[in-house]
C-alpha cells in the first residue's frame, strides 16, 4: 500500500468538500477517481501532494499516509513530498523555455548542474515518454511550439526527471483529440510498471480502458472503491451504476 | 425518468420475448406433428424457422449497435451480453424443432411402432423448462432460473431411458430400426432444447446477479 487515507475530511471555509474518505491506493497500479463535476475528486487528488495548501481557508482533518509517513504532519518536508508525488494537469503547462530546459528544470532545482548528468536525465525522461527520438534534434526549440499532445508528454517527462514515485493526473487528456488521448493512455499503462498513477477523469471509457482500480465520488463522499472490472460490470452501489451508465451526472 | 437507452433495452427484451414465443410455437408444432404423424404441420415449422432466423439476426445486430453506440456498463452490459447468448440459444432451439419435424417426415414412411410414452412426458418437461426459462429472463428472476437448471438432469435421465427402450426395439424388431432411430433422435433433440433452456437460465442468473454458474465454476473457484 503506498497511500492510505483515514477519516479524511476537507473544508473550504464552512463548505465540506471531502467527507470521511477512507481509501488505500496500491503501488504500481492505475487508480482512477471518477464522479460528476464538483464531487471532490480533484480536491482529493490535490490532497496527495498538499496542493490544497495554496488555497486560503482550507482545513483538513484525518490522516493521509504515503509510504508510512503522515504527509500532514508538521514534520513533513513539503518540497520532498512534491518531488515524490508529481502532478500533471488538464492543459499541458509547459514552461516558455526550450524542451531541454523544461525537462532539466526540476533536476536543476534539486541542485544538479553538471551538463552531462542533465543531458542523461533529459534523454532518459524523454525516452520514458516515447519522445526522445522525435525531439532529439530540436531540444533547444521552445516547448510551446510542440503539439498539445507532445506538450503533455513533455510535462510528464518533466515530472519523471525528478524521479517521483507517484504521478497524479488531473484530466490529463481532456485537451487532447482521441488519437493523442490513446497515445497518452498507452504511455500511462507503460509507466505504471515503475510508478503509481492516480488519475481523475470524466471520461468513463478512459477509466474502463486503463484503470486497475476505480473510486466513485459523489458530493464529497467516496461511494465505492473497487477493481475496475467489478465497477464496470457489477458495481455494488446503485449510485455508481447510475453515474457510469450515464443515467445521472 | 427512463432514458432513450432504457427504452431501447426494453424494446430489445420485447423482441427476445417475441422470438422465444415463436420458438415455443415451433417446438409445440413439431411435437404435434410427431404425435399426429402429420408432415403438413412439419412443413409449417420450416416457415416459422425462417422467421426465427431473421429475428436472430435483427436482435444480434441491435445488440452490437447498442454496445457500440452506448458503451454499456454494469447490468446494462450484462443484459446485452446475456441477450446475445440467449438469442443464439433460441435460434438453435428452433433448429432442433426443425430436426424433430425432419424425423416426422421420415417416420410417416416407416411402419408404426408402439408409442413411446416417455417421450411425451419428456416433451412436457422440456416445454415447461423453455417456457419458464423465458419467464425467468423476462422477470429477471434468478431464483426461479436456478430451480429450472436443476431439472436438466431429469431430462438427461429420461433421454437415457428412451435410448434403452429404443435399443430393445431395435434388437427385438430389426425391421423397425429406422423408426426407433427417429425416436432416438427426437429424444436427443428434446434433451438439447432442455440444455439450451438451462443456458438461458444461466444467462438470467448472470444478468441478474453477475454470477457465472455454468460448468460448476463457483464450486471450483471456492475449492481453490
Fold and architecture overview:
The complex is a heterodimer of chains A (249) and B (224). Chain A is built from ten helices and ten strands. In chain A, helix 3 packs across helix 4 (115-128), helix 3 runs parallel beside helix 6 (148-160) and helix 4 (115-128) packs across helix 6 (148-160). The mean pLDDT of chain A is 94. In chain A, helix 7 links the parallel strand 7 and strand 8. Chain A has a single domain, classed as P-loop containing nucleotide triphosphate hydrolases (Rossmann fold). Chain A is an alpha/beta fold. Chain A has a six-stranded mixed β-sheet, sandwiched between helices. Chain A has a four-stranded antiparallel β-sheet with strand order 2-1-4-5, covered by helices on one side. By secondary structure, chain B is mostly helical. Chain B has a single domain (4-218), classed as Methane Monooxygenase Hydroxylase, Chain G, domain 1 (Up-down Bundle), CATH 1.20.58.220. Chain B has helices spanning 4-36, 39-70, 74-107, 117-138, 142-150, 152-172, 177-209, 217-223. In chain B, helix 1 (4-36) packs antiparallel against helix 2 (39-70), helix 3 runs antiparallel to helix 7 (177-209) and helix 6 runs antiparallel to helix 7 (177-209). The mean pLDDT of chain B is 92. The A-B interface holds A 204-205, 208, 232-235, 240-241, 244-247 and B 3, 5, 70-78, 210.
Amino acid at each position: 500500500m503506498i497511500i492510505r487515507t483515514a477519516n479524511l475530511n476537507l473544508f473550504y471555509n464552512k463548505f465540506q468538500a471531502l467527507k470521511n474518505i477512507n481509501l488505500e491506493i496500491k503501488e504500481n497500479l492505475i487508480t482512477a477517481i471518477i464522479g460528476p463535476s464538483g464531487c471532490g475528486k480533484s480536491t482529493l487528488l490535490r490532497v496527495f501532494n498538499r496542493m490544497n495548501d495554496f488555497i486560503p481557508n482550507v482545513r483538513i482533518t484525518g490522516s493521509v499516509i504515503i509510504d508510512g509517513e503522515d504527509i500532514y504532519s508538521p514534520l513533513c518536508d513539503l518540497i520532498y513530498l512534491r518531488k515524490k508525488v508529481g502532478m500533471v494537469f488538464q492543459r499541458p503547462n509547459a514552461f516558455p523555455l526550450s524542451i531541454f530546459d523544461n525537462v532539466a528544470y526540476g533536476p536543476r532545482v534539486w541542485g544538479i548542474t553538471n551538463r552531462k548528468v542533465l543531458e542523461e536525465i533529459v534523454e532518459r525522461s524523454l525516452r520514458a515518454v516515447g519522445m526522445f527520438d522525435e525531439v532529439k534534434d530540436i531540444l533547444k526549440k521552445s516547448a510551446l511550439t510542440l503539439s498539445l499532445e507532445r506538450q503533455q508528454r513533455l510535462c510528464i517527462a518533466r515530472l519523471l526527471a525528478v524521479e517521483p514515485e507517484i504521478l497524479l493526473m488531473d484530466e490529463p487528456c481532456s485537451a487532447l483529440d482521441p488519437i493523442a488521448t490513446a497515445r497518452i493512455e498507452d504511455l500511462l499503462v507503460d509507466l505504471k510498471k515503475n510508478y503509481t498513477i492516480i488519475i481523475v477523469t470524466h471520461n468513463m471509457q478512459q477509466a474502463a480502458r486503463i484503470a486497475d482500480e476505480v473510486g466513485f465520488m459523489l458530493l464529497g463522499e467516496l461511494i465505492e472503491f473497487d477493481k475496475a472490472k467489478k465497477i464496470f460490470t457489477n458495481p455494488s452501489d446503485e449510485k455508481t451504476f447510475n453515474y457510469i451508465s450515464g443515467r445521472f451526472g | 425518468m427512463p432514458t432513450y437507452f432504457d427504452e431501447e433495452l426494453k424494446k430489445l427484451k420485447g423482441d427476445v420475448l417475441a422470438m422465444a414465443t415463436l420458438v415455443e410455437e415451433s417446438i409445440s408444432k413439431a411435437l404435434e406433428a410427431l404425435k399426429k404423424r402429420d408432415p403438413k404441420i412439419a412443413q409449417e415449422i420450416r416457415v416459422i424457422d425462417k422467421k426465427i432466423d431473421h429475428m436472430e439476426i435483427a436482435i444480434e445486430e441491435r445488440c452490437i449497435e447498442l454496445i457500440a453506440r452506448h458503451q454499456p456498463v454494469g447490468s446494462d452490459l450484462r443484459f446485452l451480453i446475456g441477450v446475445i447468448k440467449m438469442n443464439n440459444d433460441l435460434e438453435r432451439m428452433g433448429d432442433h424443432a426443425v430436426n424433430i419435424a425432419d424425423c416426422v417426415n421420415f417416420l410417416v414412411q416407416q411402419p408404426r411402432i408402439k408409442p413411446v410414452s416417455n417421450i411425451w412426458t419428456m416433451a412436457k418437461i422440456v416445454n415447461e423448462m423453455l417456457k419458464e426459462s423465458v419467464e425467468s429472463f423476462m422477470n429477471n428472476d434468478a431464483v426461479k432460473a436456478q430451480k429450472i437448471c436443476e431439472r436438466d438432469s431429469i431430462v438427461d435421465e429420461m433421454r437415457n431411458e428412451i435410448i434403452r427402450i429404443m435399443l430393445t426395439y431395435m434388437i427385438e424388431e430389426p425391421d423397425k430400426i429406422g423408426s426407433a432411430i427417429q425416436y432416438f433422435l427426437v429424444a436427443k433433440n428434446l434433451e438439447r432444447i432442455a440444455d439450451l433452456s438451462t443456458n438461458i437460465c444461466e444467462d438470467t442468473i448472470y444478468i441478474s446477479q453477475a454470477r457465472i454458474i455454468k460448468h460448476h465454476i463457483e464450486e471450483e473457484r471456492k475449492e481453490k
